[in-house]
């Protein structure tokens, strides 16, 4: 399935600087202790600043890098194991992916613990197909004699997988190339689907159809349907108050959808 621009995400803006580069937004997600901050520092160098996420005490780091005449604004999301729980870090990561809809999301994984880290990858893929998997710490995997078949994993996930060793900079050039390809729609993405049993799939399909009919511009309708069926009050509030679909009679429409 070719990658398509999301109608809710603003088109990349041309920024006024010496390069007149087109700017794309890239989110950096991942489990704690995967070397995510090292990836961030290598890509952005000194072109970064920190603050807090709005209304939170959680640190927000942001930086920039350029490639092939484009500028990329890299947002370092809090390290998290999941997008489903209610911790501040998990809510920030989930809300940013859902509401801000970055042009590309890089999920940094520990190549020595890839099976555990793929749990987050699959959750992110339910929200957005615009993903690059960064299999970091490949040097540690080599030392432990763990063979990483990146091409095979890429075939299973349907998105680019790039082995890296961020401490030495190994693989980061290739990572930047893949980020550029995903952000500019230069690569076809066929993200892996998470399929549940027949009863759940029937309920998800019915609610997804209702959501698409009521909110034609709604992003990640299937994922939102799953969260609503799971009783996720945070997602329901976001739908009601218009953060996902615009303010126009959102509350009334949500009531109709769930009735």
Write up this protein.
- Strand 2 and strand 3 form a beta hairpin.
- Helix 7 (198-214) packs across helix 8 (221-229) and helix 7 (198-214) packs antiparallel against helix 10 (250-258).
- The longest helix has 17 residues, at 198-214.
- This protein has a seven-stranded mixed sheet with strand order 2-3-4-1-5-6-7, sandwiched between helices.
- The chain contains ten helices and seven strands.
- By secondary structure, it is an alpha/beta fold.
- The chain has two domains: 22-183, Rossmann fold (3-Layer(aba) Sandwich); 198-258, no CATH class.
Number of domain units: 2
Which structural class is indicated by helix and strand composition?
Answer: alpha/beta
Rg, Å, rounded: 18 Å
From the spread of the alpha carbons, the general shape counts as globular
Q: Percent of residues in helical segments?
A: 40-55%
Strand content: 15-25%
H/E element order: EHEEEHEHEHHEHHHHH
Write the CATH homologous superfamily of the largest domain: P-loop containing nucleotide triphosphate hydrolases
Tell me, what is the CATH class of the largest domain? Alpha Beta
CATH topology of the largest domain: Rossmann fold
Mean pLDDT across every amino acid position: 86
Largest sheet: 7 strands, mixed
Model regions low in confidence, pLDDT < 50 over at least 5 residues = 1-18, 247-252
Question: Which terms would index this structure?
Answer:
single chain, 259 residues, Rossmann fold, 2 domains, globular
SSE blueprint:
Elements: E1 22-30, H1 36-44, E2 48-52, E3 59-67, E4 70-76, H2 88-100, E5 104-110, H3 114-127, E6 131-136, H4 138-143, H5 150-157, E7 161-163, H6 172-183, H7 198-214, H8 221-229, H9 233-240, H10 250-258
Helix pairs in contact: 7-8, 7-10
